[in-house]
Amino acid sequence: MPFYKCLKCGKVWQYPLSECPFCFIKLEPLVSKQAKVVSASKVIIPTMRHAFVPYFSALIEDENNNKWVYKSIQELNQGDCLSYCSDSEAIAVWRIKYDYLEAIRKAIELIKGLELKENSKILILPSLFSATQAHVRENTSPEFLQAIIEYLLQNNIKIENIKIASQAFGEIPIEAMAERSGLLAVCLKNKIMPLDLNKTNFIKQDDLEISEEVIKADLVINLGINQAGRAKATENIFRILKKENYLGLKYLCSEKEIAQKLENKINNLINLSEADYLRDKEGYIYYLGIILAGKSFLKLDRVFNEIIMSREISDLIADISFEDISLVGRHIKEIQFNLIKI
Amino acid sequence: MTKFDYSTKPWWQFAFEASLEAFKDAQMTPADIDAIVFSSISSAAGGEHQSHKVSFLSDLFKTNVPIIEVPSVCGGGGVAFWTALHLQGFKNILVLASEKYADNKSETTVDWILSAAEKTIEQPEGMLFPVQNALIWQQYMAKYKATMDDLSLVAFKNHTNATLNPKAYFYKKPIDLEKIKNSPIVASPFRLMDCSLSVNGGAAVILSQEESDIKVIGSGFATDYLMTFGRQDLTHFKATQLAAKQAFGQAGLTPNDINVAEVHDAFTSVELISYEDLGFADFGQGAELIRSGKINLGGSLPINPSGGLKAKGHPISATGLAQIYEITNQLKGRAEKERQTNPLPKYGLTHNIGGAGGSVTVHIFEKNN
Predict the structure, then answer these.
(1) For chain A, which ranges sit under pLDDT 50?
(2) What is the pLDDT of residues A18-33, one digit of tens each?
(3) Looking at this predicted complex, what is its ipTM?
(4) CB pairs under 8 A between A and B
(5) Location of each CATH 3.40.50 domain in chain A
(6) What is the rounded average pLDDT of the residues B29-39?
(7) How far is CA A256 from CA A126, A195, B56, B150, in A?
(8) Are B187 and A59 in contact (CB < 8 Å)?
(9) H-type helices in chain A, by residue range?
(10) CATH class as words, domain A91-335
């Protein structure tokens, strides 16, 4: 759990404030190294957002005497330490608590980090599906994009080696989507020229025509934005294909097959998906507070579907067995809730 | 005040009925009122949700006076009263609260009231109000060697009192101590009978510049962090201590001077801890106070003669004003014979908490002879 401390007056917040309102200086993030259970309560009554009982809600304290609360499906007792396994092949599930950068850092840590070198060339693929404002949650949030850029900069990636790209598959011009979503402003703020993949070269690999930018990049970061009844991390990855190639392939095979081909073909890919707020099929927005990370966009979308216990499931991921996916971070039952009830 | 129950009247009807009783008691009509301070969190079902209640009340009372809405969840009634006391230039102020929030499946109602707690950092971690208070109580038990049996005594006292109060939900519905001790666990170590009762209801008070037999002689209001465990003291509520200090300072009294009190008992532990925060017991001695019987009806300091939130019921914002209603009646000698503090009390205290100690008011009342 991150805390934010003013090094001048010593006051500590759990909210990521821009500066101390008493001293007007930037707050220092404190990341706990050791978290111990002070006490725990076994909760027997189910509530709307906590459907599975019993669960344990514990008071946790770290080495700085900062305290917070933590839900666990496993029994917790006084003195227990919180710890997490990491696995590069798993899907990481973590909570976003206002601070996207901290959530991204933890989710990536859970999948054993990224192989970043000083001169690594990074291609970020934000979700850009419609010309709508950020609060509609159709596209990657500007704050999420900004946080991943900051993460890369903090890991010594040079700004000139970061590209942000997408492609319009529909009628709406990409410029309109980028402007309205607020993502163009993030690019400009960071002095990154956004890239329309449609205008790049495409390299033929078997029956797939993949943007040269994807092939040239050392790492591609696919930013999904989870949505009920959809598989949006997977849908977003289709944008690396030449539009005509994608439309043609859809006549020849299913989207699921295209997705599986892409999953096998793209080896320099990591998926980070935000579900801080999620949108249902009718466009209503719900608070969820989740981030997912992993190498497989198909598995990531399947895990999300399990989290929201949705009866509707995209054909892209319908035959993926959830039980076969290994998870790291938060236990699925700690965060699962029934979207229908909400 | 209205009877606290699960009746399906609309929110404004609770407000209207409570106001009507207050008007008649004060021998006034809406025409005599020159300001209204109102508190509510409104309906969980949504159908009746009304964000502009002040305008609704204008229509209800056919008035164009200033109407201020002061929501502060469970502490709303007390904060509305404190606000009214601090308004200047008004002769008669109607302080009013009403709630119809128990109107859906309990899961929905719980989710609605949880909007009073931290939504992003704490609630996703299962931090419901019973859990929050259970964790505080665990700390208290470890530090002061209190027991769950002590909390059962708090519940038993308040349920016994409520059986005598016609406006309480548990009126004429006695519950024995063994049943309280063996009620189902909700969030360990809390049992169902450690939790107050979410009901619907309304309460109203008229504050007047005119001479009255009841005078407000102390008024304190303090706040504290929404995230309970970011506070310094994990076993007590600092905001109660601060509000009590203000109120006693203004009144020129000490806790020993109080003859009867309505103490916020959203959970049995909150009442016990508040004995200490209010100064009725030393730190760590709250359990001894409930064991002594001094705060039962007939004791030297009856606490929650109404049955409290626990057994009278807790219609969120209406609770703080219902406490003032009870203390006023106690000071006037108008409570039912079996509940009436005897000898007739001179000083009464109300203590109303919003959230888990997040906003607290303490008021002290004097009966003028």
Answers:
(1) none
(2) 999 999 999 999 988 8
(3) 0.91
(4) 95
(5) 91-335
(6) 98
(7) 21, 27, 56, 62
(8) no
(9) 100-110, 142-154, 174-181, 183-189, 212-216, 232-237, 243-252, 255-265, 297-307, 332-335
(10) alpha beta
